[in-house]
Amino acid sequence: MPLDAAQAHYLSGVMRQKPGDDVMVFNGRDGEWSARIDQAGKRGGSLTIGQQTAPQRDPPDLWLLFAPIKKARTDFIVEKAAELGCARILPVQSDFTNSERIRQDRLQAHAVEAAEQCGGTFVPAVADLQPLSRLLAGWDPARQILWADEAMAGPAQTLAGLLPGAWAILIGPEGGFSESERVILRGLPFVHPVSLGPRILRADTAAVAAIALWQAALGD
Ligand code: SAM
């Protein structure tokens, strides 16, 4: 199997592997396989694929919708969402979102690295930035949204009573949601507001906390 320059660099430069070494590989669809490195250099390389070592493991049906914040903290959100088992990651532009564009390829690469480091066989797709209003207008109501909003301030809610099914978590930007967004979100039958406790959390902390609570209630 051919390796492109980035994959070959990762194996030889980052992981310090050399020809003849055995590695584990996955493509996000077919589980994990053993492989032997034939060559790995600056311009690319190749592997010989051996036996399958693990079946494909797909995460539970949870998406993360979040408003991008500063670069390093957006990277953190994508990395942790991938580690914690989100199936899709959708950056959204809300009224108070500062960023007008994201580097989708960079964020997707973070998701791949996160899946590699936690031994997963699944890589969540990271979508391009899109307006929250447009996403909600075309939303399939069969997927319920847990809307984390500090305006709900109260004790952190247990999510133990949630029904299994397709879910998404929505996290706002540094400035939170605008009042007009709150009015719209409150009026949507598939949106459920949730408190993560009496403290106002940073958006990256809120994303990790909400995903962990959901996984504790409905995850694998
Ligand atoms: N200014 C801070 C920052 O730099 O990140 C706080 C941002 S907080 C407004 C960002 C988002 O985190 C909110 O829109 C909400 O989705 C979520 N959040 C923070 N604290 C929360 C809480 N106690 N309960 C529910 N959601 C919360």
Automatic annotation (TrEMBL):
<dbReference type="GO" id="GO:0070475">
    <property type="term" value="P:rRNA base methylation"/>
</dbReference>
<protein>
    <recommendedName>
        <fullName>Ribosomal RNA small subunit methyltransferase E</fullName>
        <ecNumber>2.1.1.193</ecNumber>
    </recommendedName>
</protein>
<dbReference type="InterPro" id="IPR046886">
    <property type="entry name" value="RsmE_MTase_dom"/>
</dbReference>
<keyword id="KW-0949">S-adenosyl-L-methionine</keyword>
<dbReference type="Pfam" id="PF04452">
    <property type="entry name" value="Methyltrans_RNA"/>
</dbReference>
<dbReference type="GO" id="GO:0005737">
    <property type="term" value="C:cytoplasm"/>
</dbReference>
<comment type="similarity">
    <text>Belongs to the RNA methyltransferase RsmE family.</text>
</comment>
<dbReference type="InterPro" id="IPR006700">
    <property type="entry name" value="RsmE"/>
</dbReference>
<dbReference type="InterPro" id="IPR046887">
    <property type="entry name" value="RsmE_PUA-like"/>
</dbReference>
<dbReference type="InterPro" id="IPR015947">
    <property type="entry name" value="PUA-like_sf"/>
</dbReference>
<feature type="domain" description="Ribosomal RNA small subunit methyltransferase E methyltransferase">
    <location>
        <begin position="59"/>
        <end position="215"/>
    </location>
</feature>
<dbReference type="InterPro" id="IPR029026">
    <property type="entry name" value="tRNA_m1G_MTases_N"/>
</dbReference>
<feature type="domain" description="Ribosomal RNA small subunit methyltransferase E PUA-like">
    <location>
        <begin position="3"/>
        <end position="44"/>
    </location>
</feature>
<keyword id="KW-0489">Methyltransferase</keyword>
<dbReference type="Pfam" id="PF20260">
    <property type="entry name" value="PUA_4"/>
</dbReference>
<keyword id="KW-0698">rRNA processing</keyword>
<keyword id="KW-0963">Cytoplasm</keyword>
<keyword id="KW-0808">Transferase</keyword>
<dbReference type="GO" id="GO:0070042">
    <property type="term" value="F:rRNA (uridine-N3-)-methyltransferase activity"/>
</dbReference>
<dbReference type="InterPro" id="IPR029028">
    <property type="entry name" value="Alpha/beta_knot_MTases"/>
</dbReference>
<comment type="function">
    <text>Specifically methylates the N3 position of the uracil ring of uridine 1498 (m3U1498) in 16S rRNA. Acts on the fully assembled 30S ribosomal subunit.</text>
</comment>
